[in-house]
């Protein structure tokens, strides 16, 4: 896995993100087109996605709301559900739309014209990945009219239902291009995720198809059984083991640290482990706890009660351990473990708890292997878990997926879709509910007023049906 240097790449991101929007979209002379090679566009896109989106506000917010992490600060704050339109400006206005989606569009336009199939495959996979992030937190978002300056300065919003159709067709197209003969110009070291390995990119595309199919188990007009069938069919071509994990790694040098190292360092606002998450692992004698969390001053494991009074001495609380938060820790985008939990849930929905049991156990084992838990300890833990029944299977599967998805933005999506994990409100909540979505960004509300923006954080997105 190629390691990257953030300082150089982030500079490229600025040039290719805000710069592309200004120069390539608006002021481009059609007789003298300005072009940047795909090899220069792809790296900053992958870094922005990893560092500023998955490992940025989106990931941090999900970890607080799902009570995996806590802010050792006075309330109100993120963990007590204080979120305003200005808080999400950067994710939309600087990262997802200009620096990622628009640059991917530009990259794919060039790749299509030049016949560079590999860049088309990667571009479409990453486009679907990031468009899904946008629609999952905001619901209806611009797509059809988006990124068409100066012709369209106020793009209308597409429905989330139509966006989910786009996600699947885009991934189908990615799979098609990944299956084509090798191009004269193909990615290699400029691809920080798979170094241009098209077999692995195809597996990721299929894995994302399964993720998005299962997201719609309760969506209007869809049935859990049908979505399970679709997910299982996609998984047949997806990840085979942990070597297929999609991740970005970091050197750990100055300006090249893992985002979770930066998110949890002392200057980041007192980020510690949450009592809800730590107590769940402790109650199960989970052997992953020492790998996920550090010990407290007394040698035990203590999480902070969310929303409680600030603890003067943070050493009495556990923090995120090095596997996820060292300076050179990888940032996971999608894992074999997640694929196996999707398979376990889909198998349960189609064939019942007995059929799902070996898949569920294999999913737990996959995460144990990823964390390098000893085989005996891993098996003892698996043996200790309650037997799956039709009454408890969904809860057990999602709770284990919640642990295995530590710091993953998917835990928030699973909670909205299934109701698991069952969470209580923090102390001193800013609102008396766990938000079902993000507010629209203040910059977008000002520049592109749309009726969709009238929703509140209590309103559900389309697929989050009761």
Automatic annotation (TrEMBL):
Q: Mind listing the UniProt keywords for this protein, alphabetically?
A: Lipoprotein
| Record-linked SUPFAM superfamilies | TPR-like (SSF48452)
Supply the InterPro entries for this chain.
Answer: SusD-like_2 (IPR041662), TPR-like_helical_dom_sf (IPR011990)
What's this protein's name? SusD/RagB family nutrient-binding outer membrane lipoprotein
Q: Which organism is it from?
A: Chitinophaga varians
The organism's taxonomy opens as: Bacteria, Pseudomonadati, Bacteroidota, Chitinophagia, Chitinophagales
């Amino acid at each position: 896995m190629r390691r990257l240097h953030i300082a150089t790449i982030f500079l490229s991101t600025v040039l290719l993100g805000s710069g592309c929007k200004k120069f390539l979209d608006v002021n481009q002379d059609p007789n003298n087109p300005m072009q940047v090679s795909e090899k220069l566009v792809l790296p900053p896109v992958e870094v922005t996605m990893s560092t500023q989106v998955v490992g940025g506000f989106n990931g941090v917010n999900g970890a607080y709301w799902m009570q995996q992490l806590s802010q050792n600060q006075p309330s109100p704050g993120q963990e007590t559900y204080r979120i305003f339109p200005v808080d999400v400006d950067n994710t939309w206005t600087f990262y997802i739309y200009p620096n990622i989606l628009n640059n991917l569009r530009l990259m794919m336009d060039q790749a299509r014209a030049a016949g560079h199939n590999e860049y088309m495959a990667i571009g479409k996979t990453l486009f679907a990945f990031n468009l899904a992030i946008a629609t999952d937190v905001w619901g209806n978002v611009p797509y059809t009219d988006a990124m068409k300056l100066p012709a369209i300065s106020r793009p209308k919003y597409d429905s989330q239902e139509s966006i989910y159709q786009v996600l699947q067709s885009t991934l189908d197209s990615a799979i098609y291009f990944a299956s084509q003969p090798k191009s004269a110009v193909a990615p290699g070291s400029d691809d920080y995720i798979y170094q241009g390995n098209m077999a692995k990119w195809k597996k990721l595309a299929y894995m994302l198809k399964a993720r998005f199919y299962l997201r719609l188990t309760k969506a209007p007009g869809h049935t859990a059984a049908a979505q399970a069938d679709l997910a299982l069919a996609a998984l047949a071509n997806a990840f085979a083991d942990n070597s297929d994990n999609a991740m970005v790694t970091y050197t750990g040098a100055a300006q090249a640290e893992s985002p979770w190292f930066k998110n949890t360092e002392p200057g980041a606002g007192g980020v510690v482990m949450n009592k809800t998450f730590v107590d769940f692992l402790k109650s199960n004698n989970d052997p992953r706890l020492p790998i996920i969390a550090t010990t407290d001053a007394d040698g035990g494991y203590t999480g902070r009660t969310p929303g409680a009074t600030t603890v003067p001495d943070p050493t009495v609380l556990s923090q995120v351990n090095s596997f996820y938060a060292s300076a050179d820790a990888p940032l996971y985008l999608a894992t074999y473990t997640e694929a196996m939990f999707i398979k376990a849930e889909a198998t349960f929905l189609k064939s019942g708890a007995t059929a799902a049991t070996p898949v569920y156990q294999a999913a737990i084992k996959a995460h144990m292997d990823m964390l390098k838990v000893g085989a005996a300890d891993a098996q003892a833990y698996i043996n200790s878990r309650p037997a799956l029944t039709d009454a408890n299977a969904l809860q057990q599967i999602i709770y284990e997926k919640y642990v295995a998805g530590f710091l993953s933005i998917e835990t928030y999506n699973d909670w909205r879709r299934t109701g698991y994990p069952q969470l209580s409100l923090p102390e001193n909540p800013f609102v008396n509910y766990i938000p079902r979505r993000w507010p629209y960004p203040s910059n977008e509300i000002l520049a592109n007023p749309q009726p969709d923006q009238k929703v509140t954080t209590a309103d559900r997105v389309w697929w989050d049906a009761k």
